[in-house]
Design brief:
With 190 residues, this protein is an alpha+beta fold. It is 28% helix and 31% strand. The strands form 2 sheets. A 4-stranded antiparallel sheet has the order 1-4-2-3, covered by helices on one side. A 4-stranded antiparallel sheet has the order 5-6-7-8, with helices on one face. Strand 2 and strand 3 form a beta hairpin. Helix 3 crosses helix 4 and helix 4 crosses helix 5. It starts with a strand and ends in an 11-residue tail after the last strand.
Amino acid sequence: MCGIIGYIGEKKVIPVIINGLRRMEYRGYDSSGIAAVAADGIRLSKKPGKLVELENVVNGANDSSIEGSVGIGHTRWATHGEPNEINAHPHVSFKKKIAIIHNGIIENYIAIREELSKKGYVFYTETDTEALANLIEEHYGDETALEEAVRLALLSVNGTYGIAVISAREPEKIVTARQGSPIVLGYGDG
Protein backbone atom coordinates (compact mmCIF):
# COMPACT_ATOMS: atom_id res chain seq x y z
CA MET A 1 0.00 0.00 0.00
CA CYS A 2 1.33 3.44 -0.96
CA GLY A 3 -0.08 6.93 -1.25
CA ILE A 4 0.31 8.84 -4.51
CA ILE A 5 -0.65 12.39 -5.39
CA GLY A 6 -0.23 14.66 -8.39
CA TYR A 7 -0.91 18.35 -8.86
CA ILE A 8 -1.25 20.75 -11.79
CA GLY A 9 -2.28 24.30 -10.98
CA GLU A 10 -1.30 27.84 -10.19
CA LYS A 11 0.10 27.22 -6.70
CA LYS A 12 3.65 26.20 -5.86
CA VAL A 13 3.87 22.43 -6.05
CA ILE A 14 5.81 21.59 -2.85
CA PRO A 15 3.25 22.80 -0.27
CA VAL A 16 0.36 21.22 -2.17
CA ILE A 17 2.09 17.84 -2.53
CA ILE A 18 3.39 17.81 1.07
CA ASN A 19 -0.11 18.60 2.38
CA GLY A 20 -1.58 15.80 0.27
CA LEU A 21 1.09 13.34 1.41
CA ARG A 22 0.46 14.29 5.03
CA ARG A 23 -3.18 13.25 4.58
CA MET A 24 -2.12 9.91 3.06
CA GLU A 25 0.90 9.17 5.23
CA TYR A 26 -0.86 6.24 6.87
CA ARG A 27 -0.53 4.47 3.48
CA GLY A 28 3.26 4.29 3.76
CA TYR A 29 5.87 5.12 6.39
CA ASP A 30 8.98 3.65 4.73
CA SER A 31 9.90 6.63 2.53
CA SER A 32 8.50 9.59 0.63
CA GLY A 33 9.39 11.74 -2.32
CA ILE A 34 8.42 14.54 -4.70
CA ALA A 35 9.17 15.11 -8.39
CA ALA A 36 8.36 18.30 -10.25
CA VAL A 37 8.78 19.54 -13.78
CA ALA A 38 11.36 22.34 -13.92
CA ALA A 39 12.62 24.40 -16.85
CA ASP A 40 15.72 22.22 -17.15
CA GLY A 41 14.10 18.82 -16.58
CA ILE A 42 12.60 16.79 -13.77
CA ARG A 43 13.73 17.61 -10.25
CA LEU A 44 13.19 15.27 -7.34
CA SER A 45 13.78 14.82 -3.66
CA LYS A 46 13.38 11.51 -1.79
CA LYS A 47 14.02 10.42 1.76
CA PRO A 48 13.70 7.17 3.70
CA GLY A 49 11.62 7.21 6.87
CA LYS A 50 8.52 9.16 7.71
CA LEU A 51 7.26 12.15 5.73
CA VAL A 52 8.80 14.59 8.20
CA GLU A 53 12.24 13.60 6.82
CA LEU A 54 11.24 14.79 3.33
CA GLU A 55 9.59 17.91 4.77
CA ASN A 56 12.81 18.82 6.57
CA VAL A 57 14.74 18.62 3.29
CA VAL A 58 12.33 20.52 1.04
CA ASN A 59 11.25 23.10 3.62
CA GLY A 60 14.17 23.33 6.06
CA ALA A 61 16.83 23.80 3.40
CA ASN A 62 14.60 26.23 1.51
CA ASP A 63 15.08 23.90 -1.46
CA SER A 64 14.48 25.94 -4.60
CA SER A 65 15.53 23.11 -6.91
CA ILE A 66 11.98 21.77 -6.82
CA GLU A 67 9.77 24.59 -7.97
CA GLY A 68 6.95 24.85 -10.41
CA SER A 69 3.28 24.05 -10.52
CA VAL A 70 3.28 20.45 -11.83
CA GLY A 71 4.43 17.56 -9.69
CA ILE A 72 3.86 14.17 -8.14
CA GLY A 73 4.45 12.80 -4.65
CA HIS A 74 4.58 9.42 -2.95
CA THR A 75 4.57 7.77 0.47
CA ARG A 76 5.89 4.21 0.32
CA TRP A 77 5.19 0.96 2.05
CA ALA A 78 7.94 -1.22 0.58
CA THR A 79 7.00 -4.34 -1.36
CA HIS A 80 10.05 -4.62 -3.68
CA GLY A 81 13.42 -3.53 -2.36
CA GLU A 82 14.39 -2.35 1.07
CA PRO A 83 13.12 1.00 2.35
CA ASN A 84 15.97 3.37 1.48
CA GLU A 85 16.52 6.52 -0.56
CA ILE A 86 17.41 4.66 -3.77
CA ASN A 87 14.22 2.59 -3.74
CA ALA A 88 12.01 5.52 -2.68
CA HIS A 89 9.61 6.95 -5.25
CA PRO A 90 9.36 8.86 -7.54
CA HIS A 91 11.55 6.95 -9.97
CA VAL A 92 13.15 8.59 -12.97
CA SER A 93 13.66 6.52 -16.10
CA PHE A 94 17.17 5.59 -17.31
CA LYS A 95 17.36 8.41 -19.88
CA LYS A 96 15.62 10.76 -17.44
CA LYS A 97 12.69 11.39 -19.78
CA ILE A 98 9.97 10.61 -17.24
CA ALA A 99 9.26 10.32 -13.51
CA ILE A 100 6.69 7.91 -12.10
CA ILE A 101 5.00 7.05 -8.83
CA HIS A 102 3.22 3.74 -8.34
CA ASN A 103 0.92 1.98 -5.93
CA GLY A 104 0.57 -1.74 -6.57
CA ILE A 105 2.69 -4.67 -7.70
CA ILE A 106 4.02 -5.34 -11.20
CA GLU A 107 4.15 -9.14 -11.19
CA ASN A 108 6.26 -9.52 -14.34
CA TYR A 109 8.82 -6.82 -13.53
CA ILE A 110 11.77 -9.23 -13.63
CA ALA A 111 10.97 -10.23 -17.22
CA ILE A 112 10.57 -6.55 -18.16
CA ARG A 113 13.93 -5.71 -16.56
CA GLU A 114 15.66 -8.55 -18.39
CA GLU A 115 14.21 -7.49 -21.75
CA LEU A 116 15.14 -3.83 -21.27
CA SER A 117 18.63 -4.71 -19.97
CA LYS A 118 19.30 -6.39 -23.32
CA LYS A 119 18.48 -3.04 -24.96
CA GLY A 120 21.02 -1.18 -22.81
CA TYR A 121 18.87 0.02 -19.93
CA VAL A 122 20.63 0.12 -16.57
CA PHE A 123 18.68 -0.41 -13.35
CA TYR A 124 19.66 1.24 -10.07
CA THR A 125 16.90 0.07 -7.72
CA GLU A 126 15.31 -3.17 -6.59
CA THR A 127 11.79 -1.98 -7.40
CA ASP A 128 9.16 -3.12 -9.84
CA THR A 129 8.35 0.55 -10.46
CA GLU A 130 11.72 1.29 -12.05
CA ALA A 131 11.02 -1.46 -14.58
CA LEU A 132 7.73 0.25 -15.46
CA ALA A 133 9.43 3.66 -15.73
CA ASN A 134 11.90 2.30 -18.24
CA LEU A 135 9.24 0.41 -20.16
CA ILE A 136 7.30 3.65 -20.59
CA GLU A 137 10.49 5.41 -21.67
CA GLU A 138 11.11 2.67 -24.26
CA HIS A 139 7.78 3.61 -25.88
CA TYR A 140 8.27 7.37 -25.46
CA GLY A 141 9.80 8.28 -28.81
CA ASP A 142 10.17 11.76 -30.26
CA GLU A 143 6.76 11.58 -31.96
CA THR A 144 4.92 9.71 -29.21
CA ALA A 145 2.73 11.49 -26.67
CA LEU A 146 3.22 10.59 -23.02
CA GLU A 147 -0.26 9.10 -22.66
CA GLU A 148 0.36 6.84 -25.67
CA ALA A 149 3.72 5.68 -24.26
CA VAL A 150 2.01 4.84 -20.96
CA ARG A 151 -0.80 3.00 -22.75
CA LEU A 152 1.63 0.95 -24.86
CA ALA A 153 3.80 0.07 -21.87
CA LEU A 154 0.84 -1.07 -19.78
CA LEU A 155 -0.12 -3.58 -22.47
CA SER A 156 2.93 -5.58 -21.34
CA VAL A 157 2.29 -5.33 -17.60
CA ASN A 158 0.77 -7.99 -15.37
CA GLY A 159 -0.32 -6.91 -11.93
CA THR A 160 -1.98 -4.04 -10.16
CA TYR A 161 -1.15 -0.39 -10.41
CA GLY A 162 -2.21 3.13 -9.77
CA ILE A 163 0.37 5.36 -11.44
CA ALA A 164 1.07 9.00 -12.14
CA VAL A 165 3.70 9.94 -14.75
CA ILE A 166 5.28 13.28 -15.67
CA SER A 167 7.72 14.35 -18.37
CA ALA A 168 9.75 17.51 -18.90
CA ARG A 169 8.96 17.24 -22.61
CA GLU A 170 5.23 17.65 -21.86
CA PRO A 171 5.45 19.86 -18.77
CA GLU A 172 1.78 20.67 -18.26
CA LYS A 173 0.55 17.10 -18.10
CA ILE A 174 0.24 14.25 -15.61
CA VAL A 175 -0.77 10.89 -17.05
CA THR A 176 -2.53 8.50 -14.66
CA ALA A 177 -3.69 4.93 -15.07
CA ARG A 178 -5.06 2.27 -12.79
CA GLN A 179 -5.67 -1.47 -12.68
CA GLY A 180 -6.92 -2.79 -9.38
CA SER A 181 -5.54 0.16 -7.37
CA PRO A 182 -7.59 3.28 -6.67
CA ILE A 183 -7.14 6.66 -8.36
CA VAL A 184 -9.25 9.68 -7.54
CA LEU A 185 -9.12 12.77 -9.76
CA GLY A 186 -10.22 16.22 -8.67
CA TYR A 187 -10.79 19.23 -10.88
CA GLY A 188 -11.22 22.81 -9.77
CA ASP A 189 -10.75 26.41 -10.87
CA GLY A 190 -7.07 27.15 -11.44
